[in-house]
Write a structure and sequence with these properties.
Distance between the termini: 51 Å
Oligomer: single chain
Structural class: alpha+beta
Number of helices: 3
Strand content: 25-35%
Shape: elongated
CATH architecture: 2-Layer Sandwich
Length: 108
């Protein structure tokens, strides 16, 4: 069982690891998944340091989308990517679809 002190210690440890990584390659802070219109979801990844690249932010956003849909036993159908430079941020819009369902099958 975690106490509030041990949870705070874990958060500090994670932040320290992220900052140490940022010095070398950067790290991302991802938002909570937000629900949009028509079964769409959105996640944003923001660079913690200027050494974070847009491709790395994109990868972090995609990873969170895949994890979110995977927990529902579904796959992520990535829809739209918006890149911003001030702050360095990527917004990824996606849907969760049943495994094995293709976009073409849904259109037919």
């Amino acid at each position: 069982m975690h106490t509030s002190e041990s949870i705070a210690h874990l958060r500090v440890g994670a932040l320290t690891a992220c900052l140490a990584t940022a010095a070398l390659a950067g790290c991302a802070s991802t938002s909570d998944i937000k629900v949009g219109e028509q079964d769409m979801f959105m996640v944003a990844a923001t660079g913690v340091s200027y050494t974070m690249s847009i491709p790395a932010l994109t990868a972090a956003a995609k990873e969170k989308a895949y994890d979110f849909c995977g927990k529902q036993k579904m796959k992520a159908d990535l829809r739209q990517l918006i890149r911003g430079w001030q702050p360095m941020q990527v917004e990824l819009y996606f849907r969760c679809q049943p495994e094995g369902a293709s976009l073409q099958a849904r259109l037919d």
